[in-house]
Write a structure and sequence with these properties.
Blueprint: H1 2-15, E1 28-29, E2 39-46, H2 58-61, H3 77-84, E3 89-96, H4 107-115, E4 119-127, E5 133-140, E6 146-151, E7 159-167, E8 170-178, H5 183-196, E9 203-208, H6 213-218, E10 246-250, E11 255-260, E12 272-277, H7 280-287
Parallel strand pairs: 2-3, 8-9
Antiparallel strand pairs: 1-6, 2-12, 3-5, 4-5, 6-7, 7-8, 9-10, 11-12
Helix pairs in contact: 1-4, 3-4
Amino acid sequence: MLEEGFNWLKGLRQRLDPRVEGSVRGGQMLSPEPIPSGRLRLTSFNMQAGMAMTHYSHYLTRSWRHVFPPQTATRTLEPMAALLRHSDLVAIQEVDAGSLRSGFINQLSHLAQEAGFSYAYQQVNRDLGHLGQYANGLLARWRPAQVEQHQLPGLRGRGAIMARFQMAGQDIVIVNMHLALTGRGRWHQLAYMRSLLDERVPTVLMGDLNCSHAELLESPLGDMAWQWTYGPLDTYPSWRPVRRLDHILVSRHFRIERVDVPDLRLSDHRPVCMELEFPSTTLANLHAGA
């Protein structure tokens, strides 16, 4: 059993970029596995390398975890994996790609194995060697047609993974991004992402956008026909959410069946989960060129 698990993990690592272990296959064309149904279950989660917090003071008192791993370094990944098992596509921010602070565990590969994902793509945005490997990650149950990585404008350390899948005979685009802390930085980053997106293509944009709905509406992305969702969907801080910093933006091509924010306190953010349907009317319109 142990040997089978080792071989599975080895195979998963080989699906990451074969030239530089742990980096995404930027722009490489792949042989896609079509998504077999018209439904998608999505999760976006800033996991903060699994450093659970229950109070603002922990930013100071638990700051040592940014360098040294706690004894529970792998234990906190178990409930995360349990949540992700119910998803088809997962966008993760602040995942550690294997450094001292995670006990040299590639957290994305570990979560992929525990939650049963066949494909894992990661983008290391801050490489501090053995002290820290700060990354975005995308988990998928099917092989995409293409995966790109983009360094976002501004100070280094912010990036996006852009993947193209095939669903019901159509291309769909999935984006995972982590935006800057400053409003000016976010505006330039959103303008860059807007230049990459095509309103005619079904698109889902997920991630820690570090801003509110109001800011998104006024941003360069605001002119796109997103389905804006409302309700009790605050994600930060995880122990008493009062701000909605994490978003899943969905184009008009899908129908949103469900969206919620699970009460999971294994980071300073809570995850966002959504279930979508690709209606038959949408397929007919796309085939007709609408």
